[in-house]
Amino acid sequence: MNSNLILASASPRRKELLELLRIPFEVIKSDIEEIVDEKLHPGEVVQSLAQQKAASVASTNQDSFVIGSDTLVVYGDRMLGKPFNEDEAMKMLQMLSGKTHEVYTGVSIIRGDDVHSFYEKTSVTFFSLSNKEIADYVSTGEPMDKAGAYGIQGFGALLVKKIDGDYYSVVGLPVARIKRELLKMGFKL
Ligand SMILES: Cc1cn([C@H]2C[C@H](O)[C@@H](COP(=O)(O)OP(=O)(O)OP(=O)(O)O)O2)c(=O)[nH]c1=O
């Protein structure tokens, strides 16, 4: 018998990426408050938030495989989540302009007492961006629900010079690695 799969996420992008597995799954939004402890390593932060998201849904779905995920952009010692407003989005993008930053995505898969967590790190280098280019991008509205104030899969594609690592992890779900972790946990694909 194959137990069912649940994605503990409100993100339409994560849903689209998990559909690449070509198996049915349910989406249940987790309702944790995302608090980032800046003293922790970013890998630990995203893994812990992913685990909290998965656990909040797994507690009432003990027989299911529940996937939680969290993405943060890290530049130097700054961890960037979603911008609070357009002004903050501008500032984040000005900071990332012409530089290389890291995107950390943590994943936690929980089934009953079995917990598998990991994170992926991808380096992303931006072209040098003029203030006009940044303002034009922010006016699309795209940055507002995204860590680091950009979406590589959208108009944000035009900001990116190169990446090193898993593209899908930047978008929010390292789906190839997830497939492998599910198999290790005994999920029948
Ligand atoms: C850097 C980057 C982030 N993002 C997104 C992925 C995540 O959805 C979002 C970071 O916020 P998260 O808090 O990781 O996720 P979420 O609030 O969107 O969804 P949920 O917690 O319910 O799973 O930024 C992109 O879509 N493209 C990008 O290039």
Architecture blueprint of SSEs:
Layout: E1 5-7, H1 12-18, E2 26-27, H2 42-58, E3 65-75, E4 78-80, H3 86-96, E5 100-111, E6 114-126, H4 131-138, E7 160-164, H5 167-171, H6 175-184
Parallel strand pairs: 1-2, 1-3
Antiparallel strand pairs: 3-4, 3-5, 5-6, 6-7
Helix pairs in contact: 3-4
The protein binds thymidine-5'-triphosphate.
Thymidine-5'-triphosphate (TTP) is lined by residues 9-11, 13-14, 29, 34, 53, 69-71, 73, 82, 103, 145-148, 150-153, 156, 170-172.
Biggest sheet record: 7 strands, mixed
Helix content: 25-40%
β-strand percent reads 25-35%
- Helix count equals 6
Question: How would you describe what is shown here?
Answer:
Helix 3 (86-96) packs across helix 4 (131-138). The longest helix is centred in the N-terminal third of the chain and has 17 residues, at 42-58. The protein has 189 residues and is an alpha/beta fold. The chain has a single domain, classed as Maf protein (Alpha-Beta Complex), CATH 3.90.950.10. It has helices at residues 12-18, 42-58, 86-96, 131-138, 167-171, 175-184; strands at 5-7, 26-27, 65-75, 78-80, 100-111, 114-126, 160-164. The protein is elongated and about 50 Å long. Strands 1, 2, 3, 4, 5, 6 and 7 form a 7-stranded mixed sheet that branches. Helix 1 (12-18) links the parallel strand 1 (5-7) and strand 2.
